[in-house]
Amino acid sequence: MATVLVTGAAGFIGSNVVRYWRREHPGDRVVALDALTYAGVRENVEGLDGVEFVHGSMANTELVEHLLRAYGVDVVVNFAAESHNSLAILRPGDFFATNVMGTQGLLEAVRRVGVGRFHHISTCEVYGDLPLDVDESFTEESPYRPRTPYNAAKAGGDHVVRAYGLTYDVPITITNCSNNYGPFQFPEKVIPLFTTRALAGEPLPLYASTKNRREWLHVEDHAAAIDAVVHHGRVGETYNVGSGHEVDVEGIADAVLGALGLGPQEASQLKTIVPDRPSHDRRYLLDSTKLRSELGWAPRIGWDEGIAATVDWYRTHEEWWRPLLGRAPVVEGAGAVWGR
Ligand code: NAD
């Protein structure tokens, strides 16, 4: 039995992991902390059995220190972040404040109180991008070469975590994960954006570089990877988490439209090319051998199955996503409308 503090718990991955954790570790208690930015949805976690929801910021060291002591927290899993790559182009300051200094505020509380494990969620995007036509992938040893404000802010947060691990003996682990998809993803991100637009019969905005591609992992498989690293990963280590399955921008649109049963003619009418966002990374691909060989993790949900289920979830949960549409800041000004 453990008490787990999950930060950013009302967001997409955080809320999926909270539900996963309660299912897989029913004896554990979860304290779900979230600042409820526009991307945080309180209903995603509030009221779940065994979950205590707290509205507040990870940057508030005193609040976190109080929570760590009051609940006797054993494990912290940090998802809290500004996460929308396109928005970061318009509001970089918010991203550095949250993803770098917010992470530091959280770690400061952890350093003062002490926990059994501090696990930090990061992204493949800190490694920079790869050419489309080479047989290469990023390992945990690859240098950090972020190219956008979001990536750079995440990279800064990772450095803070490692510094606290080495300097103050905070027992840290980090996972750098590829692009996630699944239910409860905010409709600003590409898969829910394409799905909700297609459901409304509205155009799907495809970046001009339609062959740029991402490695897609179902959020349930990400949750299982985090579980494995928190319980069995070596302190101080970083683990890449990826499926190896890459899909380009056009392939995502086709998969979504296909899952909704639209024929080729309707589909081609809905696909609309928009200008690339500045510094649009071409590709990220992770080498996840370390996680697979050391901890026996492997993804279970294939793309075809996962995308069909995800599109179906949005089709049947309009009451969840419809009210969120007006909440997302408009980012078309950055020459960009999708997230990662
Ligand atoms: P999200 O935007 O859906 O959720 C982020 C959550 O953090 C929101 O609920 C927001 O309210 C909360 N938050 C923001 N600032 C906070 C603060 N100061 N204190 C407490 N809560 C705060 O993002 P997501 O897609 O669920 O991503 C979660 C984490 O995973 C992020 O760190 C992101 O960088 C990382 N990640 C995401 C992906 C992906 O494909 N979505 C891939 C790899 C890594």
Automatic annotation (TrEMBL):
Q: What class of enzyme is it?
A: lyase
EC number annotated for this UniProt entry: 4.2.1.46
Molecular-function annotations in GO: dTDP-glucose 4,6-dehydratase activity
Q: Which UniProt keywords apply?
A: Lyase, NAD
Question: Which Pfam families does the UniProt entry name for this protein?
Answer: GDP_Man_Dehyd (PF16363)
Cofactor(s) named in the record: NAD(+)
- Location of the NAD(P)-binding domain: 5-309
* Entry annotated with the keyword Lyase: yes
Q: Per its UniProt record, what InterPro entries does this chain match? A: dTDP_Gluc_deHydtase, NAD(P)-bd_dom, NAD(P)-bd_dom_sf
CDD domains named among the record's database cross-references:
dTDP_GD_SDR_e
**Which reaction does this chain catalyze?**
dTDP-alpha-D-glucose = dTDP-4-dehydro-6-deoxy-alpha-D-glucose + H2O
Q: Which NCBIfam families match?
A: dTDP_gluc_dehyt
Q: Which family does it belong to?
A: Belongs to the NAD(P)-dependent epimerase/dehydratase family. dTDP-glucose dehydratase subfamily.
This protein is called what? Answer: dTDP-glucose 4,6-dehydratase
The organism encoding this protein is Actinomycetospora chibensis
What is the gene called? Answer: rfbB
